[in-house]
UniProtKB/TrEMBL annotation:
Native source species: Geotoga petraea
Keyword Cell wall biogenesis/degradation: no
GO cellular component term of the entry, any: plasma membrane
InterPro entries associated with the record: CobS
Catalytic reactions of this protein: alpha-ribazole 5'-phosphate + adenosylcob(III)inamide-GDP = adenosylcob(III)alamin 5'-phosphate + GMP + H(+); alpha-ribazole + adenosylcob(III)inamide-GDP = adenosylcob(III)alamin + GMP + H(+)
Main location: membrane
MF terms in GO: adenosylcobinamide-GDP ribazoletransferase activity; cobalamin 5'-phosphate synthase activity
Membrane topology per record: Multi-pass membrane protein
Assigned keywords, A-Z: Cell membrane, Cobalamin biosynthesis, Magnesium, Membrane, Transferase, Transmembrane, Transmembrane helix
Name used for this protein in its record: Adenosylcobinamide-GDP ribazoletransferase
Length: 235
């Protein structure tokens, strides 16, 4: 239970009891559980209000609640990544410095706005499909940790390494029930997680020779876009 609380405390704003002795690596096993809670809240908002307000307003409301409770840290990592990886510089050290800088640059602003617009359109096309996106996107972080290495010798990202390789299998246990109820959604979700983790690891290795906390968080953002894009193509 302590590891579950740590997972919520790390990647959400849901209030949980304070845990004194934490195992941040083991807490990652429960990342998909955090995704289920996000999905449950999104589900509740959607089905309670879908018959009363227009879809575009409903999607906007879901996004506001979702971003505030669950997506803020990931979005922050995403815009930092856009700034650091999009900058016209060549050295790893300079990119890492930009990633650590809390100021929002032009690349970050543009990338953030485009992401929100793209996400809104994808959600509007498949509003019900978005309900499980948080589960698969959180699992993407497990996969990325499994195949990556730290870019820094310090920082939040370094705390997850060395990452036990079998943790991604333990985390997968929480996702398997989706396959029982809807194998197509399960396969699309797992595929999007694998694709996103590989893409993020490849790009990050090329840019900064590893991953940081920002990159790990941003992988959830990328994964949701990939998942919804594939969902729009095949459903």
């Amino acid at each position: 239970m302590k590891n579950l609380f740590v997972a919520f405390g790390t990647i959400s704003k849901i209030p949980v009891p304070t845990v004194k002795k934490i195992n941040i690596k083991r807490s990652t096993i429960f990342f998909p559980v955090v995704g289920y809670v996000a999905s449950l809240i999104n589900f509740g908002i959607y089905y309670l209000l879908k018959d009363y307000i227009p879809t575009n307003i409903l999607i906007s409301l879901i996004m506001i609640v979702y971003f505030y409770l669950f997506q803020y840290f990931h979005f922050d990592g995403f815009v930092d990544l856009i700034d650091g990886f999009g900058a016209q510089i060549k050295t790893k050290e300079e990119r890492l410095k930009i990633l650590k800088d809390s100021r929002v640059g032009a690349f970050a602003l543009l990338g953030g706005v485009l992401y929100i617009l793209f996400l809104f359109n994808l959600m509007e096309n498949t509003p019900e499909g978005f309900l499980l996106a948080p589960v698969f996107s959180r699992y993407t972080m497990n996969l990325l940790l499994t195949i990556s290495k730290p870019a820094r010798k310090d920082g939040l990202g370094k705390m997850y390494f060395p990452y036990p390789k079998f943790y991604f299998l333990l985390s997968l246990i929480f996702i398997l029930p989706i396959g029982y109820f809807n194998i197509k959604i399960f396969l699309i979700g797992i595929t999007s997680s694998i694709i996103s983790a590989i893409i993020m690891n490849t790009i990050s290795n090329k840019k900064i020779e590893g991953v940081t906390g920002d990159v790990i968080g941003a992988s959830a953002i990328i994964s949701e876009i990939v998942y919804l894009f594939i969902l729009n193509l095949y459903l």
